[in-house]
Amino acid sequence: MYSKAFIPYRGYYSTPFSRWQGSLANENAIELGASTAKRWFADREIDPAIFDYLVFGKTIGQPYSFYSSPWAAAMMGAERISAVHISQACSTSTTGINMAAMGIETGSHKTIFCLMVDRTSNGPHTVWPNPLGPGGQVISEDWVMDHFGKDPWGGTSMIQTAENVVRMAGDITREQCDAVTFKRYEQYLDALKNDREFQKRYMFPVEFKISRKEKGLLEADEGIAQTTEEGLARLKPVLPDGAHTFGSQTHPADGNCGVIVTGREEALALSADPGVEVGVISYGYSRAPKAHMAISPVPSAKMALEKAGLTIKDVKVIKTHNPFAANDIYLANELGIDVMDFNNYGSSIIFGHPQGPTAGRCIIEMIEELVLAGGGYGLFTGCAAGDTGAAMVVKVSG
């Protein structure tokens, strides 16, 4: 349990998420993340010199990935600080913020910036030497599609892991998956009301190149599928006899986000409202049985709650990374909560999944919802590749 790690209110941003092969498809995610952070610092009048460390999260290879974390630090205007690059698939943001909280709690650092970036579009195609292969043929790998399609340990695609949990649970149906997906879409529409009033609380537009001389500005999510109950019902299952269609699972996306983690006094000084305090309370992690990834948010959540000395009844806001509808249904059943009563204002099943920054955006939205609710505890939990998961509890006061 942490007592010294805080996030300044509005000391964070997320870009809109761009659809796969969309507006951000040709950007180097490292450069784009650093340039976006630099623009955000200028907008918030934050001097990058306040940071003494950068936690940089990225899961998909980009040019110059070898230098990614110190390179990003320099490009965002903090060229004298050290940095670390972490990659934990969908849990990258959660674990990155936790690493920063540990640094503050132990006194190793004073003010840390967490920058999480990814671009699933135009994923790299890598080749590996294979001198003993027939004719010396190389081993090739599609960084994105091959990894979505097969876990080398579990031996299955990601969607198969969700279907495995559906079969194991025995009480999750196709109809439930469709109903939860439609509810999540309605919740996302709530974030668009009043000219995107909720999203504008934290969302920062991202600049991208159209040509050598022309730049574009992406101000809102791109690639959200208009969803109806009838449309969901017409879709065929992705796998034979499966509960999930392409409507009830997330889609790959591009984007980045940033979060400041620091001490209490420093957080209040950086806060957009000194009357609001955001504390990082605890972190949980787990590994589910082989090829049952959708289980992992449950033990992760339970660990985070136990460390915080809380029960699920103490939590006011719950957000999840839910790449498949079954994730939320299984979580609700195991925790004894209503599956329709969490993930207000959106979740990754609707706004997409760029990997590294996905959980970060969810945590940011959770903080903003807690502020609107007058404060309280928030729980984020989600799965990650390799049947792993991570969760975080935050507390908003004031």
What do these coordinates show?
- Helix content is 33%, strand content 22%.
- With 398 residues, the protein is α+β, with helices and mostly antiparallel strands.
- The protein has a domain at 158-196 and 277-397: Peroxisomal Thiolase, Chain A, domain 1, CATH 3.40.47.10.
- The strands form 4 sheets. Strands 1, 2, 3, 4, 5 and 10 form a 6-stranded mixed β-sheet that branches. Strands 11-14-13-12 form a 4-stranded mixed β-sheet. The chain has a two-stranded antiparallel ribbon with strand order 6-7.
- A hairpin with a 5-residue loop joins strand 8 and strand 9 (215-218).
- The longest helix has 18 residues, at 174-191.
- The radius of gyration is 20 Å and the shape is globular.
- The mean pLDDT is 97.
In short:
The protein is an alpha+beta fold and 398 residues long. The protein is 33% helix and 22% strand.
Please name the defining characteristics of this protein.
alpha+beta, Peroxisomal Thiolase, Chain A, domain 1, 4-stranded mixed beta sheet, 13 helices, 6-stranded mixed beta sheet, 33% helix, 398 residues
Write the layout of secondary structure elements.
Layout: E1 12-14, E2 18-19, H1 29-44, E3 53-57, H2 68-75, E4 82-86, H3 92-105, E5 111-119, E6 125-128, E7 139-142, H4 145-149, H5 158-169, H6 174-191, H7 193-196, E8 206-209, E9 215-218, H8 229-234, E10 253-262, H9 264-270, E11 277-287, H10 297-308, E12 315-321, H11 325-335, H12 348-351, H13 358-372, E13 376-384, E14 388-397
Parallel strand pairs: 3-4, 3-5, 12-13
Antiparallel strand pairs: 1-10, 2-10, 5-10, 6-7, 8-9, 11-14, 13-14
